[in-house]
Amino acid sequence: MVTYKKILVAVDLSPEAKAVLARACELRAHYGAVLYLIHVVEPIVLGGDYELVPVMPVEIEDTLLQRAKGYLGTLAGEMNVADAQQVVEIGSVKHEILRFAEEHGCDLIVIGAHGRHGVATLLGSTANAVLHGTKCDVLCVRLGK
Ligand code: AMP
């Protein structure tokens, strides 16, 4: 039987994040696993014709980081996720989720089936990219039913 030891749950800042985290918390309790909660701040991108250049003035970066940390703290407090397991990264959402999962040996990633990028498709772009970019199991939580 599969036993998950390290679960990574990825949340955006949408109201649906609670449902994603709630599902991950159920799995944490069921398997007695460690739970990591990650949010990724995407840099603002300036696009030319041929090149996309990530830019983020330090002040904006700080503001976004503080906002994300505050949000995660509130969310985590409601769900009893210890401080040490809350992670805020800057970068590409899918790359940072995949990188963290790999570096920390996570065996399950819990992610919303869709989020800010639209409810029209079955899987959002992030869920799709994570599903195809990792060797570990992925649980996509269906949202907005
Ligand atoms: P989307 O690709 O916007 O449809 O988002 C699908 C799911 O990916 C969301 O429900 C979250 O679980 C996750 N996600 C989206 N954006 C982020 C982010 N900035 N940081 C962490 N997870 C995210």
Task: List its traits.
single chain, 145 residues, alpha/beta, Rossmann fold, 5-stranded parallel sheet, two-stranded antiparallel sheet, 39% helix, 25% strand, binds adenosine monophosphate
Summarize, please.
This protein has helices spanning 17-31, 58-79, 93-103, 125-133, and strands spanning 6-10, 34-41, 44-47, 52-55, 86-90, 108-112, 137-141. It has 145 residues and is of the alpha/beta class. The structure holds adenosine monophosphate.
Could you describe the 3D structure shown?
The strands form two sheets. This protein has a five-stranded parallel sheet with strand order 5-2-1-6-7, with helices on both faces. Strands 3-4 form a two-stranded antiparallel sheet. About 40% of the residues lie in helices and about 25% in strands. The chain is an alpha/beta fold and about 140 residues long. It has one domain (about 10-85, about 95-140): Rossmann fold, CATH 3.40.50.620. The chain binds adenosine monophosphate (AMP). Adenosine monophosphate binds near residues 16 and 115.
